Each structure stands twice: as structure tokens, then as C-alpha cells.
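Exam prep: given the inputs below (a chain plus adenosine-5'-diphosphate), describe the expected output before reading on.
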Amino acid sequence: MDASMFRAWIHEAARSVTENADRLTRLDSAVGDADHGINMRRGLQAAAAMLEETNPSTPGAVLAIVGRALISKTGGASGPLYGTGFRQAARTLGQEPDVSTAQLGAALAAALTGIQRIGAALEGDKTMIDALSPAVTAYQAVIDTGGDLAKATRAASDAAEWGLKQTAGMQARKGRASYLGARTIGHEDPGAASTVLILSALAHVSSAGERCAGGYQ
Ligand code: ADP
Ligand code: MG
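Solution:
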């Protein structure tokens, strides 16, 4: 996988978050302050624009720019959290022009660790971690058994979707939603929902890559 696949991922994520911004904001109006869709749309659109301007040539450089854009433009708690995740993923990928399926798995795992280090959320706290953590595990399980990129990213996206559904039964223990206590039960977490969109964008570009030109390696 080269920089063009990573750029395609972020453009697809920006498109999908823009399309679903109202839904993300609706989820955040039940458990927070009704800005998650607005925040994520602003952050990802800024990231996509910055990629157009700078045209980075390695996967690591793409993700570093995305991290920087999300930290400076997203706003809310989610900006620094996602931004840190992308920056940690970028660090793991280094300067290599092409990265393997296993390296992408390591980058996803580094994103999870980075977000948990600054946000201190565990699984079950009703945050983006409840979507990202099962996704990282599912991705790794597929590549450990010889699966390819398209299968691994699809498994990650499906696991994130499963995690999102689980958040409806949880009481928020982190972030703004935690102020509402038991009133958060019955609603899906907005950050877990945006994680699903970002990971399903990755699955989408991975399988599109597989259908043309022999696929991303
Ligand atoms: P804010 O809460 O500042 O309005 P957003 O609405 O953009 O920010 O993002 C809210 C989302 O951020 C939540 O739905 C949750 O998934 C995520 N979040 C909040 N705090 C944490 C945390 N400490 N760790 C992980 N994710 C968190
Ligand atoms: Mg909010």
C-alpha cells in the first residue's frame, strides 16, 4: 500500500463523515452537546484539503498530516484524540513508501494505544475505544490466519460496527457524556459511530484497490 491508497482512504472518510454528519450530531445531541458531526466534518475536510495542498509521498507522511489537521481543526474532545491516533499510526509507518498489511495492523494498534494513553478510556466506557479496540483485534486475527488486506479491513469495520451497537447498552464514563450518567444508556456513542465510518472507508478503498490493477499490496 502506497501513499495514494492512504490519501484515497482519507478522502473517502471525509466524504462519508460529511454525508453522515447530521446523524453523528443527532447521536451527540442525546449524550453530549450536539457537535460531533460538525467537528468531524470540519476536521476531515481540513485533512483532505491539506493532503491536496501538500501531496505527501509516503503513507506515514499522509497520516502525520491528517493527525496534525485533526488536532488543529476538529475541536471538541474528539480532535486531539483522533489526531493523536493518526500521529501514532504515522510514527509506526515511518518513511517507507510502501507498507504491508501487517504494518497497517501495527499502525491501527498504535492508534488505539495512543488514544488510550491520552484519553484513559477502557472498553466499556462508551467511547470510540469500544469500536476501535475490537476492530484492531479483528484485523490482527485475519492477518494471523493468512487473510489479505480487503478481508482484514472488512473484519475491522464489521467489528467496529458490532462495538458501536454494544455502546447503546453502556453508561458513559468518559468525556462530556459522563455528566449525564445513566441517561446515556440506550443511545449509541457518537465517537464510536465516527470510528465505524473511518474504518468502513478504509475497507471500501481496500476492496476497490483489490478489484483494479491487482490490488494494493
Ligand atoms: P466533545 O465531547 O468535546 O463535544 P465530540 O462531540 O467531538 O467532543 O466527541 C465526543 C466523542 O469523543 C465521544 O462520543 C467519545 O467517543 C469520544 N471521547 C470523549 N472522551 C473520550 C476519552 N477520554 N477517550 C476516548 N474517547 C473519548
Ligand atoms: Mg460533542
